[in-house]
UniProtKB/TrEMBL annotation:
The keyword Transport applies. GO terms for molecular function: ATP binding; ATP hydrolysis activity. Belongs to the ABC transporter superfamily. Pfam families: ABC_tran (PF00005). The keyword Nucleotide-binding applies. Residues 2-227 form the ABC transporter domain. Keywords: ATP-binding, Nucleotide-binding, Transport. This is ABC-2 type transport system ATP-binding protein. It comes from Micromonospora chokoriensis. SUPFAM superfamilies: P-loop containing nucleoside triphosphate hydrolases.
Amino acid sequence: MIEVRELTKRYGDKLAVDGLTFTVNPGMVTGFLGPNGAGKSTTMRMLLGLDAPTSGSALVNGEPYRAHTSPLREVGALLEARSIHPGRSAYHHLLALARTSGIRRSRVDEVIEAVGLAGVARRRAGTFSLGMGQRLGIATAMLGDPHTVILDEPLNGLDTDGIRWVRALLQGLAAEGRTVFVSSHLMSEMALTAQHLVVIGRGRLIADTSVAELVRAGSRSVVRVRTTHPDALAARLSGPDTEVSFDRDNTLTVSGLTTDQIGTAAGAAGITLLELTAQQASLEEVFIDLTRDAVEHRANTVGATP
Ligand SMILES: Nc1ncnc2c1ncn2[C@@H]1O[C@H](COP(=O)(O)OP(=O)(O)OP(=O)(O)O)[C@@H](O)[C@H]1O
């Protein structure tokens, strides 16, 4: 379990993490989402004892990371900036870590096999592609067979097969009862991998919710209507809670009314409908809506409101 309480990190004038409080439970994959610069990596670094909080606490399995006597067995981590010696082979990198942490040698072969690097394990890590490097990072995280896994952007640089493989791996680890906390800036990727989401923006908590609930709460339904008489239909549909916009090809986008209401209104006015489609906002749109005010650098937006 991961418990973050009022966690704050300030770098000079910059408040990178601002009073974050959330809990990550075992037995499911929890996605950690936010636009670039939201504070995800900083939060993860504090969880792993690589950065000290300005205030607040970040506990893993009840203790700060550094208080654990064998941290590799407690928490496995993959951080974006890898610290693998480029001249060292994957095998020797893992072996050195295993030795210093009292992990049996045979575990090194097990994790190499598990991440699909058996064929290249003796090659220098410096020659690895981004995807191979990610796999080595995941092998490193799994080395101590930890209760909790913290991965920063593990899907970066992976091809479709690699992404599917990481998803299955994370879901498998969660099904074994482990705590799995994974960051990403892509909602669509996370929605397929995680059951729960913690969303942050500008260092602050925006949502702490199940994927299903987020979709339900955030989705605004709009109806696309194509008709022979868009102006006449728009006039018929206008009302205090209705918004109608004109698109190309005699198409209207209507919010605030159901397909039944629109069809009935058109029928009563003798207006022919050529298409009537209810549309749900995609998860990506929900995410963009949620974090709209929290994006640091958005094109065309100077000084987004905090
Ligand atoms: N060592 C540092 N010194 C000063 N500012 C920092 C430092 N580390 C991070 N920041 C700033 O803190 C904010 C949060 O950065 P962080 O890397 O945690 O975000 P992130 O959500 O992981 O973003 P990304 O998806 O781009 O990796 C950013 O504005 C970043 O510039």
